[in-house]
Sequence to fold (676 residues):
Amino acid sequence: MFAQQIVNAISLGSVYALFALGFTLVFGILGVINLSHGGIFMVGAYAALLLLTRFEIPFWAALPLAMLAAGLLGLAIDLLILKQLRKRGAPHLMPMIATIGAAILMTSLSQGLFGSETRRFPLDLFDQESFSWGPVTIPVLQAGITALSVLLMLLMVWVLKRTRIGQALRAVAESPKAASLLGIPVERLFHLTSFVAAALGGAAGILIGLSFDAISPFMGQPMLHKGIAAIILGGLGDVRGAVLGGLFLGAAEVFAVTVLSSEYRDALSFGLLFLVLLWRPQGLFGASATRSA
Amino acid sequence: MRTFLTSALLALSGFCCLSVASAGDIRIGLAEALTGPASQYGVPIRNGFLLAQEELNAKGGINGNRIVLVEEDERGKKEEAINVYKKLIYQDKVLMIFGPTLSNSMFAAGPIAEAAHVVAFGTSNTASGITDIGPYVFRSSPMEADVVPVTLKAAIKRLGLHKVGIIYGNDDAFTKSGYDVFRQALEAQHIRVVDTETYSKGDVDFKAQLTKLKAEAPDAIVCPCLAEEGANILIQARALGITVPFIGGNGFNTPKLLENAKTAAEGTIVGSPWFDGNPSPENQRFIAAYRKKFGSDPNQFSAQGYDALFIVAEALRKIHLTGQLAQDRQALRDALPAIQYAGATGRFAFRPAPLHNGKPGGYDADQTPFVYIVKNGKFALLK
Fold:
């Protein structure tokens, strides 16, 4: 049973990690907590659902198309909301409030368009199989999600550390003003970041929709809470931190259920989170306790 | 011109007074969750009411008076339910109110109607204690406490249960109340509970809890959950190699469960006040008419809404509406308890709620539930 719980912890944690990836990216580069990330996550799932069921597009094509749709939505939010606030030099709490509004709008719209009941991708899309290894069962899809979130994390780390665009992004994260003086097209990088982060959020929505029966207009909200916890734990704005934070949160929850009782799951897992933050207030990977953004 | 206007006004006023006396509208409030997560219950309920309204009015309404439903969206929230109730009672001046959708909301809004001496009629509230609010509170939905023992008895007979595991959501009034009812019923029927697991609203991954349940090797898993979580729980349980059947509460009573859980739902046992396969002509007529009007299959909630309007129509036929609102509201309240009706959900009667702190309560549903088992992807009657 213990081995199975470790597998459960990794699979739950990678779901959180995948969501936290795009979320933390926006904070790292734009210095903004984008609370519409949960909404984008949900729209990504619905976009894929529509493409698959209404337009009957095969999954390998639907995944990138839905990611594109989510990415464009993220770009639109940047252009219509975040950019306007940046231009006016709004204090940093403003984008948070504005993106809450965007999230509410998205939830209400999808509720009107698709209804409020929970939907799922067609079950025959993938084998709902699992492979057994001794006493441990691992659903194939879950293993895929874990692999994908690790892969995406490595890709993001590589882009940020090893490419010129990553260099420029890191410069923007350090100080948009200085970066712009150096001739880095800061606005364009902001747009790019919003697009990529939203595409990642959309991908998370699709993958979670695939492995759980969970596509609903409200799917973003609980995930947002866990996502915030994961990125704070990992260190705000750090890509590795988001993934580790997600995995830690998943492990803490499963651990709480296994050792104590599911009754105390949230109390114990968030208590653990609190202890970690007492020890490292900047989070596992955070560079400093404060970050001027 | 002026004389024309005066005479027109006079004629109008004459018409109006005449219409109150003979042919007028009977305004009835309908407060359901039409948006928000609870709208998956509220919308089918509203549809059931709309169908009943159409059928009643097509046959001349109540003694020539049309029934007009004044719809309000209470969004499945307590605060909204209170606001909507106040609006319907004091502003729209309705005769009575149907809804709200969730038990939680009825606990909040019911007292408003009680204080105003207006009938509050729930068609989907199954929590215990709803009718303790007072003698103006009615419901046509059998309590979980009535349905669960029947379900459990049938399940024990079928499966030879000795020990069960339980999983439920502990942060929701509906699932929590379902859990309490199951626990009591299990105790009363001497079934051992080997493990109890909980989850929170919005969870999608239940594997940690299910792994623990599996280790205790129960004969069945009791799941007083909503269908959304229920489908996920079923699918993940099967993926983890749990093969024992599930026993569900009222939340499992929806085709949605089968649609989403597919083969994982096989063998699941559920009790319900409505059965789509019930061959009674009232039920089959209802199903056909609903499909024709809305293009989708009805569920238990639409059937209960549909029947509820006919139940009230029966009471309205028995009283004489005077146009004096307070008097008419009281007359309706006094006529309702004696109404018996056979509709889409089968034979129905009211049963007075037991005294609560020495005070009389409202009226609960007196109805025998059906027990189903999921067989080949369909609900079949468990015999």
